[in-house]
Amino acid sequence: MQLIFDYNLSELSSYKIGGKAKYLFIPKNVFQLKKAIRFAKRRNLKPICFGLGTNVVFPDQPAENLFFISLKELKIFKYNKRRLFLSAGIPSSMLSIIGILSNTSDLFFTHLLPGSIGGGIFMNARCYDNDFCSVVKKIYYLDENLTTKTIERDYCKFSYKNSIFQSKNWIIIGADFSLNESLSKSMEKKLKNFIKIKKNLSYLNEFFDFFSLKSVSNFFNEKTIPQKVKEIEEDRIKKHHFDFPSCGSVFKNNYDIGIPMGKLIEMAGLKGISSGGAKISEFHGNFIINESLATQEDIINLIKIVKEKIYKTHGFTPEPEVRIIEND
Predict the structure, then answer these.
(1) What is d(CA 141, CA 39) in angstroms, rounded to the nearest whole number?
(2) Which residues have a Cβ under 8 Å from the Cβ of 121 and sit 6 or more positions away?
(3) What are 192-230's pLDDT values in tens digits?
(4) Which of 188, 266, 291, 321 is catalytic?
(5) Which of the following is catalytic: 13, 70, 163, 249?
(6) Please, is 273 exposed, middle or buried when counting C-beta atoms within 10 Å of its C-beta (0-12, 13-18, 19+)?
(7) pLDDT, tens only, 9-31
(8) What is the pTM of this model?
(9) How far apart are CA 99 and CA 111, in angstroms?
(10) Is 249 marked active-site?
(11) How far is CA 121 from CA 246, 292, 322, in A?
């Protein structure tokens, strides 16, 4: 098994934050993934699995007992009679391309959605009035004993930005999706080749360059791009989603309050405040950006400030959706 030693985790993070990990493994199939986890457990190391690193903040000085496993090269694409299987490492935004090609409008919301299929299911990622639980059919995962199992959508305890996977020691390896119309053999081959292109899709600027409508236009030929997809891209550009390293939205919305977290943070006068190299975005109150060499501590400090201020003004403590990977 090939291990990578002393790897800079900032290169696998949409935040561009993270120090050198003593151990990093990037499996290309489930057999290698199982082997990596067994290796870690035999040596009393703690496995930390992640996808494209878009919803995590890595430590600046990772502990030597942490064994990081990136699933970004777990890219398996299978298609048969409108049944689509995508493995955990495939970028979520692939679903929007496939949705356009198959007239499956439920998949349009994933256009320019950073992250991977595995991460999207884990978080039940939500944007533009849709979420993963509404489009996924069956999930494949490794349980605590590294046995491959499946679970139907209805048993995943999906709720707002939550799933059964957040409370279990399971690793998502892929999922089935249904399409409204069939893909041609030539288009299936083209899609498979596309996901193999080597780009650092953890970096948001490279991600945008790779998945913007201009970049993927060769997939559609004469096919009309749905207006909904165009509007999503325009909205993300307007809100400067890809201008600085970030994780996207930091906090979950509180629907009992009825006001989005971004607006609450703006009303609290917190937009634009900084801690070290991190800053609450002036364009979107629920974004904390890495403006200049931010550290994990900088991000944590701003999260703490927001929690305290919102509790003081609205009587509840907002729940972060970003995962802070800490040494313990």
Answers:
(1) 19
(2) 132, 136, 139, 156, 163, 165, 172, 175
(3) 999 999 999 999 999 999 999 999 999 997 678 999 999
(4) 321
(5) 249
(6) middle
(7) 999 999 999 999 999 999 999 99
(8) 0.95
(9) 10
(10) yes
(11) 20, 31, 14
